[in-house]
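Sequence in, structure out.
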Amino acid sequence: MKILVIGSGGREHTLVWKLAQSKKVQKIYTAPGNAGTALYGDNVDIKVDEIDTLIEFAQAEKIDLTVVGPEAPLMLGIVDRFETEGLPVFGPTRKAAQLEGSKIFAKQLMAANDIPTADFTICSIRAETEAAVADKVFPYVIKVDGLAAGKGALIIKNEADLEEALDEIWTQKKFGNAGERILIEDFLTGEELSIFAITDGERYVLMAPAQDHKRAFDDDKGPNTGGMGAYAPAPLGSPAVLKEVEKQVIQPTLAAMRAEGCPYRGVLYCGLMIDHGQPSVVEFNARFGDPEAQVTIPLIGSDLVDVLLQVAQGNLNPATFQLRDEVAACVIMASGGYPGSYTKGKPIEGIGEELESENSIVFMAGVAYRDHQFVTSGGRVLGVTRLADDLAAAIAGAYDRIAGIHFEAAHFRKDIGKKGLRRLQQE
């Protein structure tokens, strides 16, 4: 089989790494890819939003399966276009991807189908927003409707936060079209958990429950990022909690999407808040998370090619899906200044050509290869994932490998998995 993976981040490197393990794979292409994906196949100089060119490439190379990594091409209808051309593709259609592309669509769907989530108000202008929050008790959350690279949810703790949010959304138009409509949501209490369901629209399988670390600095301080590390399975995702997530979130969401006339096929990312064992949906995403992919995908014991192809063909067989009985932890190394401004082109030492050693894997994201040297080319540069028999060993192993990797002004959190270890001690 020939496979095309679309994207250029750590998630795509992880997908390519796993797909390359299948004996059924003859060749993997990644568009546009990064220095990590290039080690397992050919990078193709096509951007993720150049759908016509991607279709032409898939047809010319007789691609057997295309896997869409990031959200942007999904919102542009890449799956619809590929399917129209008779090209097998893994991912939701444009209409189904609205679960991520429009927070208002997702909220209204949840409200209509009794799927637990925070109460909300929809606003379209500043005056309407000011009226809606006039008597609202802090804290609460303001979210822009559309895609905002993970930075469209603003926690409002006081009047200063509110004024800054109103200015960014309505005066500066910082979020562009994504901020033409907004949600005002009640603040959910509890602890965050990420659940990923791979589904053909009716049947589904669950990946290992994961917990991400969004804030830039230790103890969940600093600005939001795309994610500074993750671990799986998270102890918070107990069998009892997963049962409630399936019953209250996944099953009714898939049923609601079928009723909407847009069955959801692909991976459904449920960003949840768990409070006393009960889930509430914070958000849905229409793709594998990043960095959650770096811990959940390595824990899949099945041939990932089989699973993704079954979904693309609409005939997922849950009985063939297995998880490894291990724990994975991933620590992200970022450029100094991220998620703000940062400098690219810093040489990276300590990786070498061999990315895997002693159950640890280096997954590259913002990395390029120039003049026989890996160099930084993005904010989140790379992630080190370690598999082990228990969480403590996985975390320790990831940090051991991190200690041997260096680039100027490198930054990483030193408390990845701390909440999980604390929960295990309480059990």
